[in-house]
């Protein structure tokens, strides 16, 4: 016969089921959190490959160049975090690891195309600006981000011209020149636009700056098309980006829902592919 439980004795709590360990998230020092940077990393390379394929063919150096470029960006990201954090050891290991991998792949690229070494003179000051601002914890400023944009878009010229002096000698109507200028215009404008959607959300002065800059780029593209300098599709593209810059920041108030960074990013991926088509086949 069982003894009845004493009503004054508190019931023992049932043991909780052990939680299954979730996936450990990779730290920002190993995988950059700037998701908007992916289009900026890949689009200039894809434009360069497209232009080369339509010319004499894609040279061998283009294949190790892409991973060297990506690992170089990972190293730069970790290095900026290291400087921004006051030189915490956490960020030094990925910076050195990615830097070593990028160095090996970069060496292979230079072995296949030694003339590319001359571009170091163009990239060094641009990267230096980003590191300098990171050391002052100002890596999100227009100066820091703008220098990164200029450096990223130079990759098209790196791939399609012999060197910096050769690129400067090309006429304005040359496809590598037009492609590089168009990439600069799009990504520098997008830099302003994205700030109105995230960091400078609701700032009327910043919105005016963004829309004004986009309108100026559209006017410049329209002038170029009317004078025969650029294809007729250019002003249509920059009109699209101007409308996007003016409408998207106001969309929240109209529909009563916040536009998420993911939605902003997906929109830019679509526009980036449109620009790739424009520069490659228009």
From TrEMBL:
Pfam families: YwiC
Keywords tagged on the record: Membrane, Transmembrane, Transmembrane helix
Compositional bias (Basic residues): 13-25
Transmembrane segments: 37-55, 61-83, 95-113, 119-135, 142-165, 177-194, 206-226, 263-281
Stretches with biased composition (Low complexity): 1-11
Domain of life: Bacteria
Protein's UniProt keywords contain Membrane: yes
Region annotated Disordered, chain positions: 1-25
InterPro entries listed in its UniProt record: YwiC
Protein name per UniProt: YwiC-like protein
Source organism per UniProt: Deinococcus ficus
């Amino acid at each position: 016969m069982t003894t009845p439980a004493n009503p004054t004795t508190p019931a023992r709590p049932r043991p909780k089921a052990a939680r299954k360990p979730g996936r450990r998230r990779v730290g920002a020092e190993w995988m950059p959190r700037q998701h908007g940077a992916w289009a900026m990393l890949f689009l200039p390379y894809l434009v360069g490959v497209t232009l080369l394929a339509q010319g004499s063919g894609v040279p061998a150096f283009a294949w190790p160049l892409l991973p060297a470029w990506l690992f170089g960006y990972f190293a730069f990201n970790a290095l900026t975090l290291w400087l921004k954090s006051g030189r915490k050891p956490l960020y030094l290991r990925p910076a050195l690891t990615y830097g070593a991998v990028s160095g090996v792949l970069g060496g292979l690229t230079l072995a296949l195309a030694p003339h590319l070494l001359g571009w170091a003179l163009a990239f060094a000051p641009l990267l230096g600006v980003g590191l300098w601002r990171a050391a002052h914890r100002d890596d999100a400023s227009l100066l820091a981000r703008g220098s990164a944009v200029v450096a990223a878009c130079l990759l098209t010229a790196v791939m399609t011209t012999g060197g910096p002096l050769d690129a400067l000698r090309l006429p304005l109507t040359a496809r590598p020149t037009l492609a590089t200028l168009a990439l600069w215009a799009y990504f520098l404008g997008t830099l302003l636009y994205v700030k109105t959607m995230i960091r400078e959300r609701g700032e009327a002065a910043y919105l005016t700056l963004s829309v004004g800059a986009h309108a100026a780029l559209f006017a410049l593209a329209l002038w170029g098309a009317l004078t025969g300098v650029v294809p007729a599709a250019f002003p249509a593209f920059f009109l699209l980006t101007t409308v996007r810059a003016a409408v998207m920041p106001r969309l929240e108030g109209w529909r009563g829902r916040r536009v998420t960074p993911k939605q902003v990013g997906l929109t830019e991926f679509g526009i980036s592919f449109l620009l790739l088509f424009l520069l490659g086949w228009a």
